[in-house]
Amino acid sequence: MDFRFRKGVAVVTGATGGIGTAVARLLAARGSRVLLAYRGNAAAAEALAAELPDATAHRVELSDPASCAALIDAAPVVHTLVHAAGPHVPMLHLSRVAPERFSAQLTDDVAGFFNILAATLPRLRESRGSLVAVTTAATRRFPVRDGLSAAPKAAVEALVRGIAAEEGRFGVRANCVGPGMLTDGMAVRLIADGDLDERALEVTRANIPLRMFGTAADVAEAVCFLASDRARFITGQKLDVDGGYAA
């Protein structure tokens, strides 16, 4: 029950995604109230809010600073921000990515993260709270055709390190968790879209020392640890949950 005595809420962006849902459930199981931030799937968000004690669901458009500010205004005290939002990213060689597509991805991933960060940071200073951004293991070992994900996520990681360096004096900690290949979350969409066939999955599995894929629950464990007081002396770090892929 790491969060039982924490005042306020944990804000989880991307709460209706595979990882966001797993994080929200684990935070609630460990005693936190949760504010579920979603973009489009209102039915899933409301169902999750009904499942968790004292949880509320709020729509947010991360590309809009005013929408992010309104979301945080709904929670006067925020002890944790978990940024688990991210649009679906097709797997393409960088040579096939149009500049306009890359620019849009930067806006969705990087500007969206900065907007919610800017809105939440004053509350994290007040609570001496914690930021955990869910990025990707691909920023340490580049998988072919993953540039649309890896490059923007690398920028998010740089911002998190900056927050750790600049905001530690206010008691704010900031870390990242880098998921590898999972059996749920975005991998399901990539398989459904044909971006990953069985041969590609076997090659990927062979590149993982543990020879298996992880789950959203594995990522949630790492996120909740870094957000808890058990990680009180950890900031500016990234914990890859990837079965050893980036080793």
Describe the structure.
With 247 residues, the chain is of the alpha/beta class. The chain is 44% helix and 15% strand. It is built from 8 helices and 7 strands; from the N terminus they run βαβαβαβαβαβαααβ. It has helices at residues 18-29, 42-51, 65-73, 99-127, 147-167, 186-192, 198-206, 216-227; strands at 9-13, 33-38, 56-59, 78-83, 130-134, 173-179, 238-241. A 7-stranded parallel sheet has the order 3-2-1-4-5-6-7, with helices on both faces. α4 packs parallel to α5. It is globular, with a radius of gyration of 17 Å.
Features:
single chain; 247 residues; alpha/beta; seven-stranded parallel β-sheet; 8 helices; 7 strands; globular
Give the gist of this structure:
The chain has 247 residues and is an alpha/beta fold. It has helices spanning 18-29, 42-51, 65-73, 99-127, 147-167, 186-192, 198-206, 216-227; strands spanning 9-13, 33-38, 56-59, 78-83, 130-134, 173-179, 238-241.
Distance between the termini: 32 Å
Average pLDDT works out at 94
Q: Which sheet architecture does the biggest sheet show?
A: 7 strands, parallel
> Which word captures the global form?
globular
Order of the strands making up the biggest sheet: 3-2-1-4-5-6-7
Which bin fits the share of residues in helices?
A: 40-55%
What is the radius of gyration computed over CA atoms, rounded to a whole number of angstroms? 17 Å
Note the topology:
Blueprint: E1 9-13, H1 18-29, E2 33-38, H2 42-51, E3 56-59, H3 65-73, E4 78-83, H4 99-127, E5 130-134, H5 147-167, E6 173-179, H6 186-192, H7 198-206, H8 216-227, E7 238-241
Parallel strand pairs: 1-2, 1-4, 2-3, 4-5, 5-6, 6-7
Helix pairs in contact: 1-8, 3-4, 4-5
